[in-house]
Amino acid sequence: MTSIIKFTALSGAKNEEPNCYLLQVDEFTFLLDCGWDEWFSDTIIRKIRRHMSQIDAILLSFPDSQHLGCLPYLVGKLGMNCPIYATVPVYKMGQMFMYDLYQSHHNTEDFDKFSLDDVDLAFDRIIQVKHNQTVHLKDKGHGLSIAPIHAAHIIGGTSWKIMKADEEGEIVYAVDFNHKRERHLNGCSLLESLSETSGRSGIAGPARPPQLLITDAFNASYQQTRRKVRDEELLTKIIETMRGDGNVLIAVDTAGRVLELAILLDQLWNDARSGLGAYSLAMLNNVTYNVVEFAKSMMEWMSDKIINSFTDQRNSPFQFKHLKLCHNLGDLAQVSNPKCVLASTLDMESGFSRQLFVRWCSDPRNSVIITGRSSPGTLSHSLMSNPGISSINLEIRKRVAMFGEELDEFERRKQAKKAQNKKIIEQVSSDESDAEEKVPAMKTVKHDLLVPSENAKKGGFFKQAKKTYPMFPYVETRIKWDEYGEIINPDDYKTADSLLAEKEIIANAKEKVEVEKKAEAEKEEETEVPTKCVRETRNVEVKCSVSYIDFEGRSDGESIMKIIQQIKPLEVIVVRGSPKNTAKLADSIQKAFPSSADAVKVFTPAVDQVVDTTKERHIYQVRLKDSVVNTLRFFKAKDSQVCWLDAKLDFSESHVGALDVLPGQNNGIAAEPMEVDLPAGGYGQAKDTDDARKDLIPNLVPMNAGENSGHRSYFVNELRLSDFKQILLKEGVHAEFIGGVLICNSSVAIRRTHQGHVDMEGCLSEDYYKIRELLYQQYAIL
After folding, report:
1. ∠ CA 83-86-87, rounded to 5°
2. Pairing label, strands 635-637, 640-644
3. Would you tell me how many other CB atoms lie within 10 Å of the CB of residue 310?
4. In sequence order, what are the residues at sequence separation of 6 or more whose Cβ sits closer than 8 angstroms to the Cβ of residue 271?
């Protein structure tokens, strides 16, 4: 891929922060995921906001908050309106993740980062796609296409492939994938998926090596236990705890990995040999029922075993026989003890998992099982790092009922507000009565209007999109007749004053309805007990057993290396992972391709560091000044336009780190190679240096008088003599090939030289000048 390719990590580079990256391909900029951490820090938001005007599309990989947590804030609060692409399960389950995350915080604190309306607004903008479906981008992305690839880990999980038309190589963004087959998901196979999408895009044969692979080092040093050993460990822990009359808390996510655990545990409870049928099993989060119903509706996204079982026998693994669905602690209280509870959230910073831990941790009979790793500083990470901890300081957040002076003050404010609304209703009713006295009640008149033509805009240098004038829908009504003729419609004879008064009546009526609805809502709220949020820091004794059992569903370091060796990318960017894991994966990749012919360039950027992986190093970005654009003369050459450009580079007003892309290779501007004095290392090296000039984007400014010495003429086109022969015949010129030379009217010879040039020989005559004019018309002459 000979495009300009620049990669910038906004989060998740040389650390284990959420995934959020910018990828620029020519003039088009992708935002690869937009994860948010457990504390909703403003750091990621500020970085995305700084580049928000440049983002043209968002690609979402997984539905959890580590990959799309910022989306409701970006769309709902900041007004981001670019296209957002995700698979159907990421769309549905992502909503469940965000609903549960909001409600988990709202139940215990005044949460204002985003609202449920923000979640709905954000997910309504998502364009839903299927795995291996090729999507061709438009406008600025013309010539680019994207394809989601099955990545497993979570239902609908996606690796993204970015391709450019008529060019070899592509960009693959693959993080957190899982190559192992599980109970509810097939394992991913990047090599097979790349081959399939290549075939769909019209490329025959095996898949070519990707030009660039972006992958993570989160599990670079991690070795997974065998699935059988892991399941036995989980079963043993649950049985030991419940036989000791204790409860088991399993911290899980909302709508991702919880599906794998739910299927496993329901199967264990259904097995009479396990002895678990006498105990209770429950799943607890704010959207439990919706998660299970969505899972039932997305069987085609799951493993082959589940699909075949459902197709042949209509068996669904989500028709749970023992798992009880709970939405709050009141529902859970109805489940008899001892019980095993799958509770969100995974990090235990909010949600029912944190509340149950506070309740159960002081009882030595209980157990807490953590199924995945989270960021340092979270409760889950603290318990994993210190398995023998005896006490821990926790901030206890809860919503409690108001009482005393606070309740009285709340009631006074509510009564004052109620009186104000009542006054507004009375005023609206009075205005409506006055209007009704002046004008009798009439039906609303609907007019079909054609918007008048606007002044035509002058044509510019750049192509303008065609506009059509909107028209209100017109419905032709049947004319009714009686014995006296056409029936008269009184509405056709209304005066302007009556119409204006009628509009006022309608507006007042609407306002009255809205106020009444608001009053009814406040009346319903009167039955609810007013609440407030309180916080306190408490030292909590940890007497229960705490254990970590890996149910993350990610490929380990050894498997990642084998997959990279299979697909053989030309360049690799390593993201999300500790500095140690990042360095280890980069070193392993370089050792896996030792020969110079197979050498792979590996980049390990830090946050805010720009990596330029442009393949053709003579391509640079520049800015065109208006004074230069106004002097350009374009000539048509096939499907594009070209021109000659005489200008010089100016660094005096250059911008650092800008992503603006100016006319370059793909817009047909031809220019002689220019010697540019660049700093050592060029644009393409991701080095820690204070040399700011490596990210400068210079301006192209007009040359002064005397500096431009002119240039020889250039003929832009690759003319085929066979095609030119047909043109001559249409113009009445006899032409035929003799020994590879095109003879025209027996007087002019046209031949192609070994250097590819076209030579024309003959006696000066009318035929010679006519044929030469026809030949010149086939070129754009600069």
Report:
1. 145
2. antiparallel
3. 16
4. none
Q: Is 240 helix (H, G, I), strand (E, B) or coil?
A: helix
Token pair, residue 218, equals 């989160």
pTM: 0.73
Distance set, CA 699 to CA 140, 650, 651, 661 (Å): 22, 5, 6, 12
Tokens encoding 312: 């042949």
What does the pLDDT look like over 439-473, one tens digit per residue?
Answer: 444 444 444 455 554 444 444 444 444 555 556 66
Element (H or E) spanning 603, and its range? strand 601-603
Residues 13, 47 contacting (CB under 8 angstroms)? no
Cα distances (Å, whole numbers) of residue 90 to 62, 95, 147, 521, 714: 6, 8, 15, 34, 53
Residue 313: which pLDDT band, with cuts at 50, 70 and 90?
confident
- What is the model's pLDDT at position 502? 63
Of 400, 399, 382, give the one whose Cα is nearest residue 390. 382
In a 13 Å sphere around the CA of 338, the CA atoms on its Cβ side amount to 21
Q: Which of 1.10.3470, 3.30.700, 3.30.310, 3.90.700 would CATH assign to domain 715-781? A: 3.30.310
Is the CATH number of domain 5-223+551-612 3.40.1280.10? no
**Whole-number Å distance between alpha carbons of 90 and 71:** 13
Cα–Cα distance between 25 and 3 in angstroms, integer? 6
Specify the pLDDT at position 348.
93
Q: What is the pLDDT of residues 486-497, one digit of tens each?
A: 877 776 776 666
From the list 687, 668, 670, the residue with the least C-alpha distance to 679 is 687
Cα–Cα separations (whole angstroms), residue 115 to 73, 93, 106, 683 = 9, 17, 10, 42
Closest CA relative to residue 285, chosen from 261, 321, 258, 265: 258
Domain ranges (residues) in the chain: 5-223+551-612, 227-402+534-548, 405-443+496-528, 623-701, 715-781
Q: Is the pLDDT of residue 656 over 50?
A: no
What pLDDT, on the 0 to 100 scale, is given for residue 614?
78
pLDDT at 562 over 60: yes
**For residues 185-214, average pLDDT:** 69
- Cβ atoms of 538 and 398 within 8 Å: the answer is no
What is 227-402+534-548's CATH topology? Rossmann fold (3.40.50)
Distance between CA 535 and CA 247 in Å, rounded? 27
20 in Cβ contact with 10 (< 8 Å): yes
Nearest-5° angle of CA 331, CA 372, CA 92?
Answer: 60
Work out the pLDDT band at 692, boundaries 50, 70, 90. very low
Check if the beta carbon of residue 697 is closer than 8 Å to that of residue 621: yes
